[in-house]
Amino acid sequence: MGIAARLKLARLIHILPDEPDAAGPLARASYAGGADAVMLDEDLAEIIADDTAALGLDAITEAARATQGLTAYLGRPVRAASLSPDLFVLADDEADPARTRKVVGEWTMIGRRCNSTAETEAALAHPDVDFLVVGPGLPLIRHAAEHAPQHDPKSKPWFAVGGITIESLPAVIRGGAMRAAVGGAITRASNPEAAAMALKDILREAWNADERMEAVSASAFGTSPQLTFDTKLVPPADGRHL
Q1: What pTM was computed for the model?
Q2: Whole-number Cα distances in Å, 133 to 53, 67, 115, 124, 136
Q3: What are the C-alpha distances in Å from 206 to residues 2, 8, 19, 156?
Q4: Taking the chain, what is the end-to-end CA distance rounded to the nearest angstrom?
Q5: Helix 138-147 vs helix 117-125: crossing angle, to nearest 10
Q6: What is the pLDDT of residues 93-135, one digit of tens each?
Q7: pLDDT of residue 233
Q8: What is the DSSP string of the chain?
Q9: N or C: at which end does the chain have fewer Cβ atoms within 10 angstroms?
């Protein structure tokens, strides 16, 4: 499947800090546990002069090959262009998605981190934003669910975020989310693979329990070709049947 189709079906993103030594082991554990994407979060508060982001995303990409998982990066467009992740989330609130598209290319899916209702509505309306990461807080999640219902195949995919844990995820789902981006609940777990698996199981059960989500899954594969048969075929001249 292509990147857009896998994004449509994705339910769990694991967000990693920019720590290259930990990226590989954590990414392998997370993918093995069922994470659909692993995202490297580069801290924009510091000027990064070395290649730690490149090393971290290289480790994530290597881990992704075993499961065909998505690679993701949250940071600056220029760095994203050199890293070539499957998914890129704009960390700068002022960054222009249309200009970013020209920088990262047509194949990278562009996401917007939304911390307010205004940012959520703007991202949903922008043609160059492919998906959203929304949060923190249940009010914002409910707002996103109202404006982009998860069961509507035409809605952009969006992931709830903000300190989500195994204990709080059911409330997030009740708020209208069917996808989540999780950091510490996996990263700091004694068994990251088991933690990812537990979170993914909760999301999978919620997805499967809502019959309306079948349309979302089907939409990821596009419209199935329809075969038609002509019942007025003329038999061949030699009299043989078709």
Answers
A1: 0.87
A2: 20, 23, 9, 11, 9
A3: 24, 16, 32, 19
A4: 36
A5: 30
A6: 778 999 999 999 889 999 999 999 999 999 999 999 999 999 9
A7: 43
A8: --HHHHHHH--EEEEEES-HHHHHHHHHHHHHHT-SEEEEE--TTS---SSHHHHHHHHHHHHHTTTTPEEEEEE-HHHHHHH--SEEEE--TT--HHHHHHHH-SSSEEEEEE-SHHHHHHHHH-TT--EEEE-SSHHHHHHHHHHS-TT-TTSPPEEEESS--TTTHHHHHHTT-S-EEESHHHHTSSSHHHHHHHHHHHHHHHHHH-TTHHHHHHHHT-PPPPP---TTPPPPTT----
A9: C
How far is the C-alpha of 50 from the C-alpha of 6, rounded, in Å?
A: 31
Residues 217 and 9: beta-carbon distance below 8 Å: yes
Amino acid identity of residue 100, one-letter, is T
